[in-house]
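User: My instructor asked us to take a sequence, write out its structure as tokens, and then describe one feature of it. I'm not sure where to start. Here is the sequence I was given:
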Amino acid sequence: MNLVSLEQISYAEFLEGLASPTFIAFVGLRPYEGAAVMEVNPALVFTFVEMLLGGDGKAAVNLHRKATEIEKNLMRNLLRIILQDLGEAWKSVTDIRFAVQSLADEPQGLNIFSQSEAVVAIGIEVGVGSTTGMINFALPSIFIKRLRHMFERLRRVQPAESKRRDQAHMAELLARVGLNLEARLDGVTISTGNLLNLEVGDVLVLDAPLDQKITALLNGEPKFWGEVGIAGTKLGFKVDCERERD
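Assistant: Let's start with the prediction itself. The structure tokens for your sequence are:
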């Protein structure tokens, strides 16, 4: 899952971005008044249904139709799990019980907000098996504004120690991430004609002096200056200093 958009737009603009037909859920925000709209791309819906019925989800699903009542009931059960996790995520701010109130197929019939009302639109790209699609969520902007003081309180009370623990945990996770290290000596060009005529034993003269430092790149980004040497029975790269950013 990847968050791809988060913006405040009019409800009419939100509806314009939805597919037709599609899968739409009206979501209650208990104990608060009002509701939210959750739209799941049809390709994701049919992939979810396939997996719920025992499929592996590896085959791309490309259907353009409304979900049947059986498919809707399966999706309703899946949405309960998704919305339960969403409620857990909100607990640090306030206790909200997200619950599916009803389902719809067409954006044109969604009249829970006025066309000009502002909503906070959240777009999430979801990959399931070989299928990729969007889940779009719209919350009334006035609902977010009513909870503004709770967000501000959360920022004030968040302890610095918690941030340090998070940073240490992130550093621990990143310590196991692999990086590609490449030692490169730049500064020589060759014509295509000469390249095509190269034979075994030919020597290319580089435009670099013998004492020139070699650049080491991490994932394609210049990071260190150093020199190539022998380490046992292998070539090695000795780091002399960190390279300053251009």
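For the description part of your assignment, you could build on this observation: The mean pLDDT is 83. Try explaining in your own words what that tells you about the chain.
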